[in-house]
Design goal:
Number of domains: 2
Shape: rod-shaped
Keywords: Membrane, Transmembrane, Transmembrane helix
Number of helices: 7
Strand content: under 5%
Number of strands: 0
């Protein structure tokens, strides 16, 4: 009898222990699921930020399409962990947005780089995106060729953004007819590209700025020649007027003398 009671007690205790382990495992799985959901939601917000905040000149079409694809893939992972109708609806909207962008022929407008604060913010965004690319590469969420291309583009953008800023300032000076200041800013834009001047993109941009500088200098030289010609014409006109005045005075004086003599 005693042996049966002991056996039953052991079974009950074992049952309680097994149930406790089951509850613990279930709780760990729940916590792990919540952790994964939080991580995926953070990734979703992160990729959305890249889509929204990277200006068109720093986000080529294939890169933007890859970001759309990543958002959709993250939504799929979230739905697998935690099915949700609002999230399903959001995924559909994302897919439609990506398809619309892919089929659109409209050129996206570049965003001017107006100040140093914007440059710092954009460079931090470049660094964040670079880190995300490395994570995606490790997780095999991006192929080697695309990673290499985007990595090279980010390196180029870190210099281009400074050149874009000085180009913007130069344009503002040009529009307010401060041509010497405009030339100075275009030269500074070229200087910002000197560390990577062997790159094809840098060569094209440097050539563009040099052509603009030459056009401004040619225009200034033409204005100077026109001003000199105008000044010369004015001097000749004043000299002729002076001769006319002297001749008129001579004639009037001669007429007066004739009348007096008469």
């Amino acid at each position: 009898m005693t042996a049966i009671i002991v056996t039953l007690l052991l079974m009950v205790i074992g049952g309680f222990i097994a149930f406790a382990i089951y509850l613990q495992l279930k709780e760990q799985a729940r916590i792990e699921r919540l952790r994964k959901v939080a991580l995926l939601n953070n990734q979703l917000r992160q990729v959305r930020r890249y889509l929204d905040e990277l200006p068109a000149q720093y986000q080529p079409k294939d890169m933007r399409l890859w970001l759309y694809a990543r958002m959709i893939a993250i939504c799929d992972e979230l739905l697998a962990v935690q099915p949700d109708e609002p999230l399903s609806r959001r995924r559909r909207f994302l897919h439609e947005e990506m398809q619309q962008f892919q089929s659109s022929k409209e050129k996206r407008r570049a965003k001017p780089v107006v100040d140093e604060i914007q440059i710092m913010e954009m460079k931090r965004l470049f660094e964040s995106f670079h880190g995300y690319l490395q994570t995606a590469k490790t997780a095999k969420q991006i192929d080697e060729d695309s990673f290499a291309r985007y990595d090279e583009l980010l390196h180029w953008f870190r210099y281009k953004i400074n050149a874009d800023h000085h180009s913007y300032l130069a344009r503002q000076f040009f529009l307010t007819h401060k041509m010497e200041d405009a030339i100075s800013e275009y030269n500074e834009a070229i200087n910002q590209l000197r560390p990577i001047e062997e790159k094809t993109e840098a060569i094209e941009l440097i050539t563009k700025y040099q052509e603009i500088i030459q056009e401004i200098q040619d225009d200034l030289a033409l204005q100077q020649r026109e001003a000199e010609m105008e000044a010369s014409t004015l001097e000749d006109s004043e000299a002729e007027e002076g001769l006319d005045d002297e001749w008129q005075k001579f004639m009037e004086d001669g007429e007066f003398k004739r009348k007096k003599h008469f």
